[in-house]
Fold this protein.
Amino acid sequence: MNRPATPNDFSRFWMPFSANRAFATDPRMITGADGMYYTSGDGRQIMDATAGLWCVNAGHNDPLIVEAVQRQIATLDYAPHFNFGTPQAFELASQVAALFPEGLEHVFFTNSGSESVDTALKIALHHHRMRGDGARTRLIGRERGYHGTGFGGISVGGIVNNRKHFGTLLTGVDHLRHTHDLGRNAFSRGCPEHGAELADDLIHIAELHDPSTIAAVIVEPMAGSTGVLMPPIGYLKRLRDICDRYGILLIFDEVITAYGRLGAASAAEYFDVKPDIITTAKGLTNGVIPMGAVIVSADIYQSAMETATAPIELFHGYTYSAHPMAVAAALATLETYRRNDMFARAASLAPHWEEAVHSLRGLPNVIDLRNLGLVAGIELAPRPGAPGARGTEAMKMAWDDGLMIRVTGDIIALSPPFIISKDEIQTLFGKLAAILRRLT
């Protein structure tokens, strides 16, 4: 049946992670984007202080990326990668692998961060099975962790509202405690001083379940969507050491941090800690076409290639793995990062960014400020009996004042494109300061 469509019926599109009913009464519509700015439905310029959703690192409408996608759709719109190949996909895999620490040599392409996480968890289980260690089936996540919205990701994730409505989830999953400690670490600049000992939770969990049953631990090196939580100094190295002690694979979820967000190609490089698997997405294509990538160690890859008993070494994949359009966008994005030395630019802006972030200290309701690379978290005291209301109001006020910010509960999360200027940083935080002074 071909029913007539009703224009601007906000109930038709069930928006993700959104207050749909509230949006329908006060919509914030976007009609264009260029550089650091979106264009609103009423024609205003809105500074993008979130790189879309942590992904538009090179800014909007980058000409190299736009031209690459336009060329690709006129050349090869789609090809499968089940037993067939495209040259550009192999080239991209080589370029991606070269960005990550030595020993992480092989790339499996996905279409999102959620798919990257589920892929990484499956590869970890597969690896142990291929090595004859099939008892290792347990997966360990962390409280307040965000690993996408697949059943694997919400099982190892630790954000309550992402889990509570969806049944029993995966079995055999446990969680480390989160590292957020306002009492000892509030207003830290960079990584907080206290909390490395929380990595020892893994020792207790291993001893509880028997370490020979644990396949992998997955953490975000810097937790983003839960409210921008930095790892305590020494925490990640300690976690790596404990994983080595017990033969557990360590997975870094770098969907946010990979491709320059901290001023390095990866958080693994930034923190000098090498995991066994890294999940990525977002900045890989500058958000232009959905794509993710899972980077795995040579040992993991070889365990599949050398011990598989069937011609297909891993029974896993997606129709759109290494989609030609996404590959074109990714190759152009990586070239844009190189030509403009964008990772170094992010690193050079980080000190200026830090000073701007901490200039908000002392403003009403600000109970913590956190920063690392070009990321910031501004934690607000919740209103009594109305958690999240103050953050939501701040987001709406920011939109009216020409800023797009992201809020998670009462935490404002900022992650601008790397093309932001020092003057734009001052403008951003000047407007935020004015909003926080008006916010009740």
Remarks:
- The first strand starts at residue 30 and ends at 34.
- Residues 144 and 160 are 8 Å apart (CA to CA).
